[in-house]
Design goal:
- The complex is a heterodimer.
- Chain A is globular.
- By secondary structure, chain A is an alpha/beta fold.
- Chain A is 37% helix and 23% strand.
- Chain A folds into 2 domains: 243 residues, 3-Layer(aba) Sandwich (Rossmann fold), CATH 3.40.50; 125 residues, CBS-domain (Roll), CATH 3.10.580.
- Chain A starts with a strand and ends in a 13-residue tail after the last helix.
- The longest helix of chain B has 35 residues.
- Chain B has one domain: MetI-like fold (Orthogonal Bundle), CATH 1.10.3720.
- Classes of the chains: A alpha/beta, B mainly alpha.
- The interface between A and B is medium-sized, with 29 and 22 residues.
Amino acid sequence: MVVFEDVTKIYDDETVAVDGLNLTVEHGEFMVFIGPSGCGKTTTLQMTNRLKEPTSGRILVGGRDTKEMKAVDLRRGMGYVIQEIALFPHMTVAENIYVVPELLGWSKQQKVDRARELLHLVDLDPDIYMDRYPMELSGGQQQRIGVLRALAVDPDVLLMDEPFGGLDPLTRDQLHEELKQLQDKVNKTIIFVTHDMDEALKLADRVTLMRDGKLVQVDTPEEILRNPNDEFVANFIGSERRLISPLDVQVREVMLKGVPTIGPESGMDDALRLMQEKDTDYLAVNDGDQFLGMLSAHRLQVLRLEGDPGGQVKDANLINATVDSRETMMTAVHRLAESQEHVLGVINRKGQLVGAISRGWLPDILAKEMWPKEAAGYETEES
Amino acid sequence: MFPQALYSALTLTANRTFTESLMRFFTLVGTRGDDLRAALGQHMMLVLIPVGIAIVVSIPLGILATRYRAVEIPALGLANIGQTIPSLALIALMIPLGLGIGRRPAYVALLIYAILPILRNTYTGIAGVDPSLKRAARGMGMTDMQMLLKVELPLAFPTIMAGIRTSTVIIIGTAVLAAYIGGGGLGQFIVTGLGLVRDDLILLGAIPSALLAIVADLILGRVEDWVTPRGLKV
């Protein structure tokens, strides 16, 4: 977690680069800073690892005031990826990855194992790439190594300063996908600076839009697209992006939350009683943290007609169609149609249930997305 | 093999007097072999000692100059001035400066001459390291010393080595002038030869010092290549 408290940066020439910034980047959050040049986004990033010192205010990383720490210790505990890539040209890929581990005094074996593990993470064969020099790699491969180098000692926080700005659009797209997949595996707190709105919307959990050193809006990409705070934000997003289709919304934005859950060993009668009590057609069957499937009233009905209302919930032929919470509604609708089910479990990156999308709710969801004001009366989230 | 070939070539150009001088030079190499070896030894010392000291002084000074402006301006300024003074004048200046004659003042004068190429190349080599690499190094948590040893020096090394090479070759030539203040070396033959109008003696100094410069340049060129990090050559 990274917390900015009243952070201000005034340069020697009296330019106010960052003006009273207050912001919390949650643990495991992918936060993208965006804004026109000179808005203070890069200064903010560089203050996080003390390449620049704030004029006033505090920055807390993992609960500790960065000013209380030695700058080199702080930096070694934080990944740093920059637009220029800046792999050390006289070092091999492996040696580049070893840099921070070496500063921390890791053993040879630890370093080698870690480098191999990291290369596997981005599907680069260690036997081929470990001993290559940066100049023997393409730009895209170089920046993959740049990211791995930053992850070498498994830091909690990753700082990325326009890391893909120097790459061609195709490579950039590919690296976006890989970074998202990588983030699923490593789950870092990421502060990512860009001036590319598409990039921001694609990658961010939340976007921080800055202007003249101040925060203008901090929101999820969907929220920024749907409800820009002011003219500046709207202009910055650009009109073509604002016409967002309800089907482009991420599932997690509109899913039903708080689906009642039931254990796999419970009886069918209990399940029915719970449905009536919570006034719902669906139950999530969870074995501890493990999501097993959805049980629908419809299926209970079928079982009952077949004359088999007894038995345990887990034997009830559960609905196991799911959708990732970060997929779009487009995917969810498609998945519903494809699976012929009435409900989809919405799962997070760890495979746990976080909500549901049901056929019955679809019109409400779409209406709310298309006509947010009129649909305000509808309530799509159960409490 | 070589002398004959050279001889016939020169004969063909019909430059009689030079050919004859050359013939007498070869005779002289035979008769005054011991003197030649001694002078060559002295000459090499006239190069190795000043260049050696220049390396030890200039590299740290060059590094400091990239760190502190207070070092940068006087160090590079003085070295530049030292280089501007004509070499013969600088060597002759040692006498009025109170250093007298002999090898010691020769070493001092040649040292002053040797410093600039190494100092300047150390400075430009390190200052020329891509700033983004330095930012990355700093951002990854290297101390200033770690950045110097792991990033800046390895990358600047070929440039520094080129400075050492330039310096060595220049000093091999300039060391010939040391003979004017009794510094010894191959210059003795030239100075004496000029006095006696004996071109074979002049050649006895000139040819070995020229060969020495060429050989040193070739060898140091190899070293330069050898110290260039592999990643910069691919």
